[in-house]
Amino acid sequence: MVSLGCPKNRVDSEVMLGLLEQAGYQLTPEADDAEVLIVNTCGFINSAKQESIDTILEMNHYRETGQLKALVMAGCLSQRYQQTLWDDLPEVDAMVGTGEFHRIVEAVEGALNGTRPSFWGEMPVSGLAAPRKLTTPNYTAYLKIAEGCDHSCAFCAIPQMRGGYRSRPLQDIVAEAKRLVAQGVRELILIAQDSTIWGHDLYGHPELPRLLYALQEIPDLVFVRIMYSYPTQITPDLVRAMRDLPVVAPYLDMPLQHAHPELLQKMGRPFRRDKTDRVLGMIRDAIPDITLRTTFIVGFPGETDDHFQTLLNFIEEMRFDHVGIFTYSHEEGTRAEKLGDPVSEAVKQRRRREAMLVQRKLVGSVRGRHIGHVMPVLIEDMGDTVSVGRGATDAPGIDGVTYVKGRFSPGQIIPVKISGTREYDLLAEALM
């Protein structure tokens, strides 16, 4: 299995691996040993689409150099372009879209039998409860709480690939969380296209606080981390739950995409700066040690130097802990397609570098506020004299790490005192 793209795709890959293992297939981490290769593709932006196609063609070479008998294409790119890719990629022996990845065993069997099956329907969220083969370290797992998206962001093709928003029922999520914790998972990372709206389609209004209270009751669970929150759905009830529940990490990922109201309105995003300021203020007042991550897009059609300067000022003023900057990708089928792509690639890249430089200049003092604080750290790697871990301040793969003096085993959770910073990373001494 080669899994590309976001953590939501990764969960789908883990479900597919779990179903295949349950069906009697033997999994291998070595591509040249595999008789079946599955590429779970990403179709979000142009660079991801190209990576997916390149990976398919690269894996096809194992027909000559390895044991490959069947090549299966799955995921977002399969769902988005369906028949076009099916016709253009004769190398692929079976294709499964995001809606029916739970039929992966059927797809693999058909590929091996030469029937070249394809499945592109919309999967019910109950399929997410299938067995999973974790590809993360055994102490960390992503927990998908919903599928699809109802937002109409002008730049985004996710609804084309994932369908409308469908929340998983509370009991399904909690049951999977309990299974994962029983396997040794200590950190659950909640993911969806919009985590904060979870439950609105099932219960008539968002119910993320209710889910957090239910997860709090699971023994041995240490961290619950919320990713992909939407600013207009950050309610006082949610903030109180984050503040009051020990298991919920004081961490929130809230992609804002820009800071200028004119650009935000064109993007189809919340564009009232006063409301954004109130939300950020409410969060920080209630949880002073909160870690805030956000992302922005530069180079959206019509972005002027003045628009971009507003974004730079916003980054400097708000002092986020973690900031990701993406350049706009012109995507067919989105509402922004008709706007063209007037901002040159050179300008996009220059603006990205400038924005990241502003954040880099801030990060030392922003991260430095943790110095002297005591926090639990989940160890991920043990060196000769220093171990590497993460506390509540950092999500895996996208944020910094914490360097702890001493030798500690991966998966161990130890109390530390933060003693310094190294750009995006923290330095700490163990309190044991």
UniProtKB/TrEMBL annotation:
Its main location: cytoplasm. PANTHER family: RIBOSOMAL PROTEIN S12 METHYLTHIOTRANSFERASE RIMO (PTHR43837), RIBOSOMAL PROTEIN US12 METHYLTHIOTRANSFERASE RIMO (PTHR43837:SF1). Binds 2 [4Fe-4S] clusters. One cluster is coordinated with 3 cysteines and an exchangeable S-adenosyl-L-methionine. It is an enzyme of class 2 (transferase). Its cofactor is [4Fe-4S] cluster. This is Ribosomal protein uS12 methylthiotransferase RimO. It comes from Sulfobacillus thermotolerans. Residues 368-432 form the TRAM domain. Its EC number is 2.8.4.4. The keyword 4Fe-4S applies. [4Fe-4S] cluster 2 binds at C149, C153, C156. [4Fe-4S] cluster 1 binds at C6, C42, C76. InterPro entries: Elp3/MiaA/NifB-like_rSAM, Methylthiotransferase, Methylthiotransferase_CS, Methylthiotransferase_N, Methylthiotransferase_N_sf, NA-bd_OB-fold, Ribosomal_uS12_MeSTrfase_RimO, rSAM. Catalyzes the methylthiolation of an aspartic acid residue of ribosomal protein uS12. PROSITE patterns: MTTASE_N (PS51449), MTTASE_RADICAL (PS01278), RADICAL_SAM (PS51918), TRAM (PS50926). It is found in: Cytoplasm. The keyword Hydrolase does not apply.
